[in-house]
Design a protein that fits this description.
single chain, 205 residues, alpha+beta, 13 strands, 21% helix
């Protein structure tokens, strides 16, 4: 096999892996109060940006059927890899598009937005699809939203090294919790770990 054929084969295998891992099992919650369960041979095709959500019934059979739910009529998706049903992930439609929930507390939710979507690997972890080697701020970024608000707050891109501007944006948003604000301001942690410090956030009355 020459180098060109080898690279093409690898690319096709990676594409097949991503397509498979982007189809998961779980539950789709709709804004009208109903749910759509996907298990056994059914699959949820993880959406991206503001695209409609698709459910594949009998995904690998000859009589496969597709159900489509619009972005605006979906409340959330709780999903997992079929091999790791205990590792569930939540994906929600926001004003920025489909975002995965990095974590949520009674006081704040941290969202990750990936322009190219998401996939769940065989070990159950969720990953953001991005162009290899890209440093685009818009490709993968994070948003914060305090409980009781409905406007996501842009905190910055996730593909760059930590900078004071990233921490400063977060600190401006959480000025109602001086102790957590100071913790983040003094930190030199990478962006993902800086966000985890928001688990301590508790607004002062």
């Amino acid at each position: 096999m020459n180098a060109k054929s080898y690279l093409i084969t690898i690319a096709l295998l990676l594409a097949a892996h991503t397509a498979y891992a982007s189809s998961v099992i779980g539950t789709v919650y709709l804004k009208n109060g109903t749910t759509a369960e996907c298990k056994d041979t059914d699959r949820i095709k993880l959406p991206k940006n503001r695209s409609s959500l698709k459910i594949l019934r009998n995904a690998y059979g000859k009589n496969r059927k597709t159900e489509t739910y619009k972005f605006d009529e979906t409340d959330s998706i709780v999903c997992c890899h079929p091999r790791q049903p205990e590792r569930k992930h939540k994906i929600v439609p926001t004003k920025s598009g489909w975002c995965r929930v990095y974590f949520e507390t009674p006081y704040i939710t941290v969202y990750i937005f990936s322009q190219k979507g998401y996939f769940i690997s065989a070990n159950g972890g969720i990953e953001d699809i991005q162009t290899r080697g890209s440093l685009s701020q818009s490709e993968v970024c994070c948003f914060l939203m305090k409980r009781g608000t409905d406007e996501p707050y842009y905190a910055g891109g996730m593909n760059r090294n930590p900078k004071d501007s990233f921490r400063e944006r977060i600190c401006r948003y959480i000025k109602d919790d001086p102790s957590t604000e100071e913790m983040i301001r003094q930190s030199s942690a990478i962006r993902s770990k800086t966000l985890l410090m928001l688990q301590h956030y508790k607004p002062q009355k």
